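hey so u asked for the seq, here:
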Amino acid sequence: MKKISIFISFFCLSVIAATAGTKTNYRNALIFAYSNCVYEDDNIKLEIYNEQLWATNKTKKALFIDLAQCFTIHNGSATPLTSNTDKKQGNKKASQTGFTTKEGQYITIAPDLGSKQQATFICNIATKMYGNYSTTESPSGDFTDYDKKMLNVLEELLEETKSKDGKTYTGTATRHFTEDESINNIGASIAYASTQTSENWTTVTMTSWVSDVTFAPYYVTIPKDLKKKEKAGFGIKETAPAVVHIHANSPFEFDAEKSPLIVMDWEGNYKKGTFKLTYTWIPKVQKMNTFAAISLALFSPIAFGALAATTNIIDNYYKKVVSFDNSDSDWGSMKYVKNILLTNQKE
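ran it, structure tokens below
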């Protein structure tokens, strides 16, 4: 009888422990979902996905993109796609703001040879979003109508997601926009031709706008790095992606491999009227160069922007998959943490 009582007691404790809930180490994310992310004509296909611009050649001949004639677009403002400071400029301020593009820089887009054609990476498209914002200034230094609309929408979202004590944000809020109502747009102007010496370059411009914005808690499941012994042999040992779990419903169906979403880490100070948007990519620390490692240590959106502007993020960061866990999913008790890498510790 005594043994049965002990067993029943142990079973009850196990049930209590199992039903006590979990603790989720989370941070807050601002998620932009974009519409109109594809441009296509008879020769070329341009796509914006995974925060990057990609091009696919539809012809049987190579195509060339002339970087001297290409620009990225953010909130209606154009910036040279690849530029370097003109060392001949004597004025220090001019050297910081005046850019000239190197001549003879091209991206070659391979011809369509009948099999599945891989898209060619052109540039990262979202780096200008990262940085420090305030009620009077954006990372670019300007304060556009887009910034004003974003701040107004953000204030509404934050008010809806406040916890009962009013100190943290544990809820989820969303908004849907038309193109005219949108709080952000991105795009590019690309010049291409079938020869580098062409006198007639075809220029195409594509823009994409935020159709849905979500403010919600998130955490990241970080892939486990294989040890040397585990890498031995020739069996397939594919690295798992980093999964960004969002406590929200998906705004619409999309291809996970070509995500039209930009998920930004959000950290704000209501009293000062400031907030910071940073990336949610998880770096492959062991393979990073010194500059990237310093960027991670400082967690600086500016440093990340400098590194990522013309470098394929996938080269230095884990593949990222966005998972919407639904706004009513049970995440247990939630604890806000100061670093994105700490959110991996979901208990």
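Residues 286 and 293 are 9 Å apart (CA to CA). Residues 1-20, 84-101, 286-290, 296-307 have pLDDT under 50 and may be disordered.
lmk if thats what u needed
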